[in-house]
Amino acid sequence: MKVLLTGSNGLLGQKLVQVLRADPAFDLLATSRGGDRSAQPLGPGYRTLDITDAKAVDTIFDAFAPDVVIHTAAMTNVDACELDPVACTLQNVTATENLLRAAERHDSHFIFLSTDFIFDGQAGPYKEDDVPAPLSTYGHSKLDGEKLVQAAGLRKWAIARTIIVYGHAAGLSRGNAVSWAKGALEKGEVMRVVDDQYRMPTLAEDLADGCIRIAKQGATGIYHLSGPDGMTILELVQRVATFFGLDPRHVQAVKSDSLGQPAKRPPVTGFILDKARRELGYAPRTFEQGLAVLQEQWSTNI
To answer: Is residue 94 in a domain?
Structure first.
């Protein structure tokens, strides 16, 4: 199975690379901006690609003719999207459109990564068929991407929505909620953490597994792929402190509106995972099990 991966330098992308390159059932072509950041270079299995360039996308597709496309690349900084909606639309909507047109020509199974931020957070946790109502430019852009996927002339497509992906990988340009929390706790920094946003954080390895299950099974439709444990962001930080034996005395509970962030966040999201468990065999680890995975990786510098 020939798999074209976008965003391979990101956290999810690197986890997908680790599994796909080691599985003889797959022939992987990883793509991202800039050079290959894989711990073990992919060589000819990596190509630099600007997915906002339709001609460049067509060239890659015509040379590789993928059976499956896993589209993880996106502008995901919620506040940056709010401040620069043009760039957000280019990266999250126009680029997706470029990939979809190429995928149509090659009859590729298209797997699109989306987010809990397509919901307004008034009625979470959410099922796959709940009605979206995004609050932010980022949420709107990902919902627009979903609509493009569903409206394209694809024989097979899937949308994998997720929530707060955390994990460890080499050469990442951005941290994540868990690495930020652990680092700040270790330094004893004063942390102002919201207690009015509820999420279900997702271990990157589990999300990668869900995406690969969709690819292997030729699954279609929308799937919710998150961790199984719901918590506020404050509780997330407290659970990180407890697990790693760190002092949470400098953690201050605050409300979202006190932070002055440009983008509005949905208060209560979370996902109902029954469909993914039933149809894909998706079995995400608990939050503490995920932290144990990170602890092992950090201790061995994997």
So the answer is: yes
Q: Name the residue with tokens 């509820």.
A: 198
**Roughly what angle, to the nearest 10 degrees, separates helices 95-106 and 54-64?**
30
pLDDT tens figures, 169-227: 987 877 899 999 999 999 999 999 999 999 999 999 999 999 999 999 999 999 999 99
Rounded to whole angstroms, how far apart are CA atoms 149 and 134? 17
Pair of tokens at residue 46:
């990596």
Characterize the bridge pairing of strands 157-162 and 109-115.
Answer: parallel
Contact 286, 295 (CB under 8 A): no
CATH number for the domain including 97? Answer: 3.40.50.720
Structural domain includes residue 81: yes
Number of C-alpha atoms within 13 angstroms, CB side, residue 157? 22
Containing domain of residue 90, as a range?
2-170+201-229+269-285
The pLDDT, as a whole number, for residue 302 is 61
Q: Is 147 a member of any domain? A: yes
Assigned domain for 254 exists: no
To which H or E segment does residue 232 belong?
strand 231-232
Cβ count near 221 (within 10 Å)? 14
**Nearest to 162, CA basis, from 217, 112, 224, 85:** 224
Smallest CA-to-CA distance from 228 within 256, 197, 207 is with 207
Per-residue pLDDT tens for 32-77? Answer: 999 999 989 999 999 999 999 999 999 999 999 999 999 999 999 9
Query: pLDDT digit string (tens) for 16-33?
Result: 999 999 999 999 999 999
Query: Model pTM?
Result: 0.97
What is the number of domains present in the chain?
1
Positive/negative CA dihedral, 265, 270, 271, 277 = positive
